[in-house]
Amino acid sequence: MIIFGKRTAYIGSKTSSNNIICTHCETKGEIIYSVFRSHAHIFWIPVFPIGKRAVSECQHCKKTLSFKEMSPEMKKECNTVKNEIKGPIWQFSGLFIFALLIVFAGFAGKKDKENEAQYLSSPLAGDIYDYKTENSQYSTMRIIHVSADSVYVQLNDFEIGRSSKIYKIDKEENYSKKAYGYSKDEIKTMYDQRIIIDIDRE
Ligand SMILES: [Zn+2]
Fold first, then answer.
1. N or C: which end of the chain has fewer CB within 10 A?
2. Positions of E strands within 101-200
């Protein structure tokens, strides 16, 4: 469940110019415009700003006006103030977190590839190869023995339609007792051709 919504933050104020007259008490130049900016949040982390709104208050008679209630002159000045007051960067926090996650995922992916290259060049008994079958299903093979130029594997008797679900069939009882041998070159070719799609080591 994702909890998301909208929140509003006060981001600043500015006093009106002297030619703005309070429509309520007729005092000049005593109006303060206060600007608010809303942001979308997911799990209470601000993600991005949605929009600004402003209200005015007369410092003399304390009358407050929404934007709709302002005189045309006030609206014009208020719009300028709204544009001048920049919202805080923290209202984008979620986007920064998201960007960081992408960068970390990138590093993790790169590390994973480095590990795989190392597992491929020096296989060990117990390594699991996830591979694509001839009929475009997915299955696994498990190394049981490694010699100078070959690896011996047990094949998984089961296959599954989605590569992300391979873990469901990677069970001890699914492996055939029969061993098959591949040369290390054959294994490398299968990896290069993306027949072997992943290498896992405990
Ligand atoms: Zn007033």
1. N
2. 128-132, 138-146, 150-156, 175-183, 196-200
